């Protein structure tokens, strides 16, 4: 950590091959310095430079990958204390707890209910990631059976929670393919759990009685060659946990303390007597600065606000949310359906799209890339100008889908109609309403 983009650029091959996904080595170096690219994306970097850069460009809080398949994710990898300084990258993972002595039918019911908790929001699928399986009575077979069932029959990732080494080994044998998080190495079993994590290549949680204990355990495990660690300070009281979370974030970022340079795991389920209070605690931890929060259950009324909070916090504040440029079909339009155009700011798209859908008039919606700006802002910035919109209409292919040449532009951009008509002489440019809420009436009146 600490190298600038220019310093990184000097160690790159400077071929500008674009195989890393960006057009130049300088652009790749800038992304690497900002934590937005992986060094492995460059196929031509020398072994010597790779060794230097891997250490120098690594984020102060190591990213740790957990899970496999559709709900695989990373925690950690953060580079700043506060979101406004830059951005937060890897959202807090959410887990719900089950006991190893849970009845099979009850577990089936839970998994079915939890899997249904998925929400579409600004084009994203918001959902929880993990199930934490807690060893209830030391029965290795029962613990492994529940873990295997979840791994094989659901999309959820796993946290395996037991101090019993044999139970952990048995469970890992049945679900290692899901890349579970092993919880936890303690002062009593640190070498055994460390060796198991090293043999299996799985991430390992470390639990101490306090932050000082964690430092000692973390140093011992990293000395064994382990890198993918997740830290639990042991605090189960709100004030103490809050202080620990801030201290454990600050230490690697401000004091270069590598012993604490890992994401954290927290347990709201052990800090409250009801799910409502757990949810309040989890909301604090999403902001300050948990990598993973374990709840006693998932319920829509508590999970949805946590997912929304997480979405808002882990969105780049310097970059608007966007949708992909292109042609969107709303309500199965045909060749005679109206054509509207708007910008790719996600909020604009979903408001306009929702109003069109509510009108029950099947329509084509052209979404133009304006770098995430709303209609008014994009127009004022010259990114939704008449010539640019006309060029987009020509190249997007809508002319091949409709039998008419009539396009509806937002009322706020009425002034671009003349320029559009010059560049699109075969098209009629209709000025639509200024307010999206008037779109349904506008489309219905047109359809008469």
TrEMBL record:
Residues holding [4Fe-4S] cluster: 17, 20, 25, 42
UniProt cross-references to InterPro entries, sorted A to Z: 4Fe-4S_dom (IPR007202), Ac-CoA_synth_d_su_TIM-brl (IPR016041), ACDS_complex_subunit (IPR051069), AcylCoA_decarb/synth_gsu (IPR016218), Dihydropteroate_synth-like_sf (IPR011005)
Record bears the keyword Cell membrane: no
Binding site for 5-methoxybenzimidazolylcob(I)amide: 342, 348, 372-375, 436
Record's keyword annotation contains Cell membrane: no
Listed GO MF terms: 4 iron, 4 sulfur cluster binding; iron ion binding; methyltransferase activity
Domain 4Fe-4S: 1-59
Matching PANTHER family: ACETYL-COA DECARBONYLASE_SYNTHASE COMPLEX SUBUNIT GAMMA, PTHR36214
This protein's name: Acetyl-CoA decarbonylase/synthase complex subunit gamma
Organism: Candidatus Desulfacyla euxinica
